[in-house]
Cyclic nucleotide-binding domain-containing protein
Amino acid sequence: MKEIKDEKELHSYLEQHQLTNIFNDHLKEHAVLCEFEQGERICTQGESARFLYVHVSGKIKVYTTSQDGKILILSFKQPLEIIGDVEYVNGAELLNTVEATSTKVKMIRFDFEWLKKHGNDDAAFLLFLLDIIAHKFYRKSTAMSFNLMYPVEVRLASYLLSVSALKEHTFTDRLDWLDLKDVANFIGTSYRHVNRIIKQFCMEGLIEKNKGVIVIKDRAGLQIMAKDNIYEQ
Amino acid sequence: MKEIKDEKELHSYLEQHQLTNIFNDHLKEHAVLCEFEQGERICTQGESARFLYVHVSGKIKVYTTSQDGKILILSFKQPLEIIGDVEYVNGAELLNTVEATSTKVKMIRFDFEWLKKHGNDDAAFLLFLLDIIAHKFYRKSTAMSFNLMYPVEVRLASYLLSVSALKEHTFTDRLDWLDLKDVANFIGTSYRHVNRIIKQFCMEGLIEKNKGVIVIKDRAGLQIMAKDNIYEQ
DNA sequence: ACTTAGAAAGGACATATGTCCCTTCTTTTT
DNA sequence: AAAAAGAAGGGACATATGTCCTTTCTAAGT
């Protein structure tokens, strides 16, 4: 991680994401723009949280690891995302690990102490946090119900649709979201089983696959398979 | 549902749960104490939310239903619980259905409109909401990871431990949390399978069961089975 | 182009879980 | 107490998913 001491750039990011009114001048004063390498961790599950991060550029993934080493990927995210919000509010240790999956991941960092001093009496800031966390809860809630109620083929169909709905410019950008190992860990199943279902989808004519590249052939069919559920990215 | 027009009682509940400082005088002005019958719905999934409820007495369950009729119970709750908080913040329709599972379930009701007028600039109220929602997110998050990563025997062991940790006065109070149909819908599996695992636990000497009453025989063994996870109620 | 290391895919089998329906137990009614 | 209705439990089989290991493909190095 390196700190980028460029106030201009920092403020341009804030404006780009309409955050200038969210963080008051006191808060902005101590904001730091950080850049992370691909593969670098922004924060690690189990450690104590000291910073709130506003993810403004690049791609990240959020995952959790169980005692016995199982990995569950909770989300692949692009901006705008907030990291550390829940921990800021409840004071608990970090729930998940966050890792940069593209180069030049940029985050605006705020120190918890400073936020407490100058943000906890600021309704705009608190409403912003509320909105973020409520939205996270909403997604988590629907995702959990969905995961618990439907088998892998439904979840995978839903996942494929959600990826195809992304507004990615280039073709290779899309591929980032389709590493089957990651997909398995996201859906909460084994790589083997994802493979099995992928093959089944191919045979049913829902998708096609060449050299690891998956193309949707029958969107309507996939939607039926997904029972109209789509993971919100 | 009937409204109880008894300011004394309402305020005694607020005090009991240390909420007097959370809701300012404006907000309290329009608070209404409501009582629900056993089996009555406090709110219904899919409808638009208009009220924030503070659950102060009795027992409730929260569940969601899928398009094809599957039921997933999200929690069995005793006070203190807040209903409608997420919907208040994000304006979406109700995510879940909430139902009274005991007689005389009491809730303090606040109108969204009134809250917006007199609460959204009140840091104490906003911090309270933040705390509640962050905590809900935390529980949901750990529950989802747990559910996705472990098989039913682990989840059931965890559930049994969590129920045994409840501070219920009477014996019959405990039974409320052990209807196996409900347990199955909570864990996200079939009644048949819960039964199977219960029997397995009996054979392994972890629990005993007589006429539908389950008694824990080997807490340490259950904890190992649960891999130290416990559902937070 | 050949070799080889590593990634991706798949076969075989074991386990976990769901569905359907029959049996057994409980409770209520007569 | 006998009978009947309903709840709870369980058998048998089908499906979903996990584990382990082999095979196939891909890409890098020579």
Notes: The first helix of chain B runs from residue 7 to 16. Chain B has two domains: 2-147, 150-225.
